[in-house]
Amino acid sequence: MPREIYTLDLEFRGAPHVIASYLIPTSKGAVLIESGPGSTTGKLEAGLKRLGFGLSDITDVFLTHIHLDHAGAAGWLARQGARIHVHPKGAPHLLDPKKLLESATRIYGDAMDALWGEFLPVAESQLVVESDGAKITVGDLELLAIETPGHADHHFAYVVEDLCFAGDVAGVRLPGSDYVSVPTPPPEFHLGKWRDTLTKLRTLEIRRIAPTHFGIFESPAKHLEMLATGLDALAKFIEEVMPGNPLPEEISQRYQEWMNEQYALHHVGGDELNAYEFASPWWMSPGGIQRYWRKYCLNPS
Questions:
Q1: How far is it, in rounded angstroms, from Cα 116 to Cα 101?
Q2: In sequence order, what DSSP letters do the residues of the chain get, joined into one string?
Q3: Are strands 127-129 and 83-86 parallel, antiparallel or unpaired?
Q4: Is 188 left (phi over 0), alpha (psi -120 to 50) or beta?
Q5: pLDDT of residue 299
Q6: Torsion (CA) 39, 213, 16, 9 in degrees, nearest 10
Q7: pLDDT on residue 298
Q8: What is the mean pLDDT of each run of 10 residues along the chain (301 residues)?
Q9: Which pLDDT does position 81 carry in this prediction?
Q10: What is the predicted pLDDT for the residue at 1?
């Protein structure tokens, strides 16, 4: 019988289907895939309670990467006793989040606390640094960690039985939608690495895929094909816009227009559009595209 896996909706900004944390019961208690941000710890605790679990039951938290929407509550959960599992490149920022928070504050400004809440450091004794291909055992649960760069260099996907928890490298897709959006925030978006990761994901023997934004989807081949379509569309945008060396303001304007075209093409509107934007604000992506172009396309060496 397949293992019970629960999707906890953290109701980010009061909206459904924006950020998920996945709960997996084990013989030792339970683990979480993603902590969510510090601003949603109340929703996380309430979701656990509805399922008959408390914070003391969470033995381990597996982070796909350390962006605030995925890892912001990791330090808080560590203080409740959980071990935090992370990519080697993300570990230093959990031990000392100062640079991460300074960078995020430059982006979010006065909205930082309201959006993300408190980001506490993780004590070294509670931090577990994983490696690509590691098989991790927690009680009667086994997880496989897979390095999956493209959205971020410090990104893991985790496979449990027939299900791949794919973080942001699987894109953003809402329940019931056939649109997969490709988030490209700075500083580590890389189109070529993302395509290589897509190839890797297609080799996995899985029957389900779970992006953090949002939910568990059947037919992973279909989902990955939609992701490939999104990457191809993004590549075309880059090829059409970036060779002209546009100013940041022009990139942002053209990207916003392009995103509006993508939403219209895929019949995304209303509350669904708001949820896509909460999960991956359009205005964050142009900076990642510009950095990728300048660092890897203009100076490929």
A1: 10
A2: -PPP-EEEE--GGG-SSS-EEEEEEETTEEEEE----GGGHHHHHHHHHHTT--GGGEEEEE-S--SHHHHTTHHHHHHTT-EEEE-TTTHHHHH--HHHHHHHHHHHGGGHHHHH---PPPPGGGEEE--TT-EEEETTEEEEEEE--SS-TT-EEEEETTEEEEETTT-B--TT----B----TTT--HHHHHHHHHHHHTS--SEEEETTT--EE-HHHHHHHHHHHHHHHHHHHHHHGGG---HHHHHHHHHHHHHHHHHHTT--HHHHHHHHHHS-GGGHHHHHHHHIIIIISS--
A3: parallel
A4: alpha
A5: 73
A6: -60
A7: 86
A8: 92 96 97 98 98 97 97 98 98 95 89 94 98 97 98 98 98 96 96 98 97 97 98 97 94 97 96 94 94 88 58
A9: 97
A10: 72
Query: How far is 160 from 145, CA to CA, in rounded Å?
Result: 9
In this predicted structure, what is the pLDDT of residue 3? Answer: 87
Question: Cβ–Cβ contacts within 10 Å for residue 253, how many?
Answer: 13
Distance separating alpha carbons of residues 96 and 50, to the nearest angstrom: 33
- Region of 117 (left: φ > 0; alpha: ψ -120 to 50; beta: rest) is left
pLDDT value at position 119?
A: 96
Place of tokens 């577990």: 128
From first CA to last CA, the distance across the chain in angstroms is 51
Residue 301: the pLDDT is 58
Closest C-alpha among 22, 39, 49, 119 to residue 78 = 119
Measured between alpha carbons, how far is 90 from 97 in angstroms, rounded to an integer? 10
Beta bridge partner(s), residue 55 = none
Angle 157-283-108 from CA coordinates, rounded to 5° = 85
Measured CA distances, 255 to 19, 141, 230, 236, 247 (Å): 24, 43, 14, 12, 12
Q: What is d(CA 285, CA 31) in angstroms, rounded to the nearest whole number? A: 31
Pairwise CA distance, residues 295 & 37, whole Å: 30
Residue in this structure with the two tokens 């700075």, named with its chain if needed: 186
